[in-house]
Specification:
Strand order of the largest sheet: 1-2-3
Structural class: mainly alpha
Shape: globular
Oligomer: single chain
Order of helices and strands: HHEHEHHHEH
Number of domains: 1
Number of strands: 3
Length: 210
């Protein structure tokens, strides 16, 4: 079986300048949301605004602003909170990034793809007897209130749809900010989360290579 062709923004940067890998920072933290992005992560960025080269920054929170372990949806970030948080984050970036930098805001992922893709498959903990599906495992974690994302990892379609609705609202906030705000040291763009498109491309590539 032939391996598929890999591609990425990082690869494009490396092809343009082979030294780009020496100037790469990953400020990601599992579970970080828009509150933590501006209170901790941005402050840890190592960038000299006067001496360093311009930066390409990806702001991608994936789904942490709509995910929590408690079995309700009251802890999801509101659109008002998201707006306040992202403006604070961009203000912090404007104070740190060299002139000519670029910031890309990535929309949140529609996590319903987890349940839709996996719910009837056997989870690894049920592999011995083929008796525990992802759907059952999700509900078990919710019963214990230890799920990493109650809103999406849930057999209740209404809850998944409500979580998706809030996800769309928060992504709309990011898009609006990108379209309406300007900054001194960087320009800002918005892109929808490409997860579903990437999965379709990967699926089609795997079929071709078989």
């Amino acid at each position: 079986m032939e391996r598929g062709h890999g591609d990425s923004i990082y690869l494009k940067l490396w092809e343009r300048n082979h030294c780009n890998h020496r100037d790469y920072q990953n400020l990601a933290k599992n579970g970080a949301d828009s509150f933590e992005a501006n209170s901790k992560l941005i402050k840890s960025m190592a960038r000299d605004q006067k001496l360093d080269q311009p930066a390409l920054v990806f702001y991608s929170l994936v789904g942490n602003d709509v995910c929590q372990a408690r079995p309700d949806l009251s802890d999801m970030t509101t659109p008002e909170e998201m707006h306040k948080n992202v403006l604070e984050t961009l203000k912090g970036l404007d104070e740190r990034l060299p002139n000519g930098s670029h910031v890309i805001l990535i929309g949140l992922v529609d996590g319903r793809i987890l349940y839709d893709s996996l719910h009837n498959r056997v989870h690894p903990i049920g592999s011995l007897r083929n008796d525990v599906t992802y759907e059952k495992f999700y509900d078990f974690m919710n019963c214990l209130q230890i799920s990493p994302c109650f809103g999406y990892m849930n057999s209740n379609k209404t809850i998944r749809d409500e979580t998706s609705e809030r996800t769309a609202q928060l992504s709309a906030v990011l898009k609006n900010v990108a379209e309406t705000m300007t900054y001194e040291h960087f320009d800002v763009y918005y892109f929808d989360c490409p997860l579903e498109e990437v999965m379709k491309v990967s699926y089609n590539s795997s079929r071709v290579s078989l």
